[in-house]
Every structure is written in C-alpha cells, then in structure tokens.
Amino acid sequence: MAKLTVLLMALAVLFSVFGFQGGNVPIGVLFAVVAVSPIAFLVYAVVTKKRGPRDGRPVTPEQRRRRTLVLRVVALAMVGVVGYGVYWVVFEPKASDKALSRISDLEDGCGGALARKYFTQTAEHTGPGPHPVAMFGIWESGASHAVYPPSGTPEQWSGNKLDPHRVQLIACLDEPDDGEFITDCKFTSDSLKLYRGVYNVTVYEARTGKKLGNERVAGSAKANCPSMVYLKKGIDKLHSEPEFADYQQVLRKYVE
Prior knowledge:
By secondary structure, the protein is of the alpha/beta class. It has 2 domains: 2-92; 95-255, no CATH class. The protein has helices at 2-21, 25-54, 61-91, 244-255; strands at 94-95, 117-118, 133-138, 144-146, 169-173, 177-186, 191-205, 211-218, 237-240. The strands form 2 sheets. Strands 3, 4, 5, 6, 7, 8 and 9 form a 7-stranded mixed β-sheet that branches. Strands 1-2 form a two-stranded parallel sheet. It starts with a helix and ends with a helix. The mean pLDDT is 84.
C-alpha cells in the first residue's frame, strides 16, 4: 500500500505540472491537493498517535481500523483521480501557444503522441460559410501530413497560401481500413500489396478542439505506387489516399 501511495503521489505531482502548463488551473490544483493528501494524513496519524498515550488513552483497535479505512479511501480516491489525469493528459485536447505561419502548423490539431491541440489564435467557427479548413492525411508510417488542393481550388480548402489564423476547421484522417485490392507495388528488394484505403475523417473546431462530426472517405482506386515508402513496424501493405475531390465531397457540408 505504501509503495502504491508513493507512486500515485508522484503521478499526481506530474499531472499537476501538466495541468498548470496546459492552462487548466483547476486540474493543476486538484492534483496538487491529491499529491499532498497522503502527507496530511500521515501528519494527522502521527499527531493523534502521540496524543493518545500522552493523555493516557492508548490507540484502540477501533481507531486503528478507522485509520486503515481512511488510508484506503484516500488511496482509492487517488487511483480514481490519477486515472482521470491519464485520460486528461492523453485524450483531452489542450490549448497550443504555437506561433502560426502556415497550414502545417495546425498539424497537432489531429493529435500525435499525446492529446490533440486547439488553437485560440484561429478564427471562430460561426456564421455562414465558407469555413476555411486545414486538412491532414496520414502516411503509412503513421505520421500526419498537410493535404493541399490542386491549382485553382478556393483557398478555404486547405490552400497553401491560406492564412492559418483564418482557419475555422481541422479535418483529420485516421489510419485506414483495407478496401479492395488494387495492385502489387514492386520495389528494389520487395513488393507490397496496394489496397484502396478506407478512412474515417474527423472534423474539429480549430479554435476550441470541439468535435463536429465523422465521415467516411475512400482512397483512390488508381494503381499509383509510390517510388519509396516508410512503414510502421509490422505493416506489410500499402493504402491509397483519397483524391482531393473525395475530401471535398464529404467535407463540403462543413466548409461551404
């Protein structure tokens, strides 16, 4: 029990720091309180233990049981709060203070190793369209990348010259499911099967991180093999990405 309490205290301190750094003061204060609560209980236990014999009243078995019960309740409460802390750190979107100069600077809005980011410097999602969107696909390596439109496409569609401060929406592709087999892609020392990717695309408000909706979009059916590719460990196949017109078809109701 003591080792678990020390571990939970350390995690609570860590999450408290994350909370203050992430701009969530209530979370930071909550975990600070959780971190010091076992120390407060220990002080209380020591004081009451000393007070008992001095007053001629030794600690009774009932008092010991109460202390043990209180300690267990505190430990269970810490487990619950730290569990929420893990959820908050990993899954809850956080405000980003990153300077924005190009569309690719909004990539963290799709997440990464930790929680997604939202960008208070971007435009509010309100009023009639158009609602400029930054779009991000996903490489076979698992890394995301900005998706830019073909020449002549209105700038609100993730245009390379679109001011990121004007962006209202961020659209993110998840890792693909396998569609139909397209072809074998041959490389210098190996070949990989190319499947039509089937993706879930999620739309968020850039300014708040609020999720607005999910859509499904299929990759291209063309037999276009890459000249080179980086794969995640354990992956031995490729997936086609959507054509830009496919993005527009499923995202038009959000953007226009």
